[in-house]
Amino acid sequence: MSDYYEILGVSRDASTEEIKRAYRKLARQHHPDVAGVASEEKFKNITAAHDTLSNPEKRRAYDMGGGMPGMGGAGGPGFGGFSDIFETFFQAAAGGTGQRGPAPRSRRGQDALLRVSIDLSEAAFGAARDLEVETAVVCTTCQGTCCQPGTHPKTCDTCQGRGSVQRVARSFLGQVMTTAACAVCGGYGTIITDPCIECSGEGRVRTRRTVRVNIPAGVDEGTRIKLSGQSEVGPAGGPPGDLYVEIREKPHPVFTRRGDDIHCSTALPMTAAALGTVLNLDTLDGTQEVDIRPGTQPEEVVTLRGLGVGHLNGSGRGDLHVHVDVEVPTKLDDDQEQLLRQLATARGEERPEARLAPASPGMFSRLREKFGGR
Ligand SMILES: [Zn+2]
Ligand SMILES: [Zn+2]
């Protein structure tokens, strides 16, 4: 940071009048309207020096080495202490971060979300899938520098590599400095004169890529699996974003999933329910024998332990529940009817009495399921 007296070319004991004279002369010479945008920085320094030294109070504070009250020293490189205050003020007012310096050209890539449909057995046991993704990878020609090989970005003349330019604005506070991104370099502080032909100066190229995702057992509809750093790389070779894989579970024609348990129902002839039998059932684990005990009732549930969906992040599996649907014959030939009448007689059931009982709550939920009422 140059000294304010040096900037104005006056001695340390110069009078206020001498300071103003020096300022007027220099301002005419270096005003951006006259000398072009390149002189903006110089003009800003001249103005800052004049603002401070022409005000006796500010000049005293400056001479004491404090710049302005509340300022620790003379401010950052290339910036006058006085304008810093307003800069900070305006940045704060605009919700800015107060960050200074050129914006980095390279940024992190975007996250991406991909949906994948799996069937129940993949959810139960887990699966590995290869997914084709539209993505971007670092340009191999420029290695993400965005420049043609052998060339380099050049420092922006307009902002001298700072990425921002200062403007003098008049407001109720008087003459203040505002900071704006440099329009010439887009705020980067550098200009790429020879953009890489391969990636048009983006530093990355679009491509299709195969990503392997390991789907663990126990995933459910809507489960998201995060693949860190598997999304596109950012502009100018920035770090890659994350790829999220969201699970869609295709409905199974037979099995309904409730948590990690699965349910199905099987029709069972009345005689088999009464006498007991062994059913062969196609499960996710192949054909399994299901023991139907003699005297099995309608709506009874036979549970096969551990034949459900694997628990996510744990060991063991849910159960398979087989709901028994006892079928009463609707058509009997003469012989069958005779046999049944004989059975009824033997059991004393020719004219059974009504045995009233309250309806169970479960009955209503079954009615709802069947007829959709409420
Ligand atoms: Zn390139
Ligand atoms: Zn610039």
Automatic annotation (TrEMBL):
Binds 2 Zn(2+) ions per monomer. Transmembrane segments: none annotated. Zn(2+) 1 binds at C139, C142, C196, C199. The keyword Heme does not apply. Residues 126-208 form the CR-type domain. A zinc finger (CR-type) spans 126-208. The keyword Zinc applies. Its main location: cytoplasm. Residues 3-66 form the J domain. It is found in: Cytoplasm. Its cofactor is Zn(2+). CDD domains: DnaJ, DnaJ_C, DnaJ_zf. Keywords: Chaperone, Cytoplasm, DNA replication, Metal-binding, Repeat, Stress response, Zinc, Zinc-finger. SUPFAM superfamilies: Chaperone J-domain (SSF46565), DnaJ/Hsp40 cysteine-rich domain (SSF57938), HSP40/DnaJ peptide-binding domain (SSF49493). NCBIfam families: PRK10767.1, PRK14278.1. PANTHER family: CHAPERONE PROTEIN DNAJ, DNAJ HOMOLOG 1, MITOCHONDRIAL-RELATED. Belongs to the DnaJ family. Participates actively in the response to hyperosmotic and heat shock by preventing the aggregation of stress-denatured proteins and by disaggregating proteins, also in an autonomous, DnaK-independent fashion. Unfolded proteins bind initially to DnaJ; upon interaction with the DnaJ-bound protein, DnaK hydrolyzes its bound ATP, resulting in the formation of a stable complex. GrpE releases ADP from DnaK; ATP binding to DnaK triggers the release of the substrate protein, thus completing the reaction cycle. Homodimer. The J domain is necessary and sufficient to stimulate DnaK ATPase activity. Zinc center 1 plays an important role in the autonomous, DnaK-independent chaperone activity of DnaJ. Zinc center 2 is essential for interaction with DnaK and for DnaJ activity. This is Chaperone protein DnaJ. It comes from Occultella glacieicola.
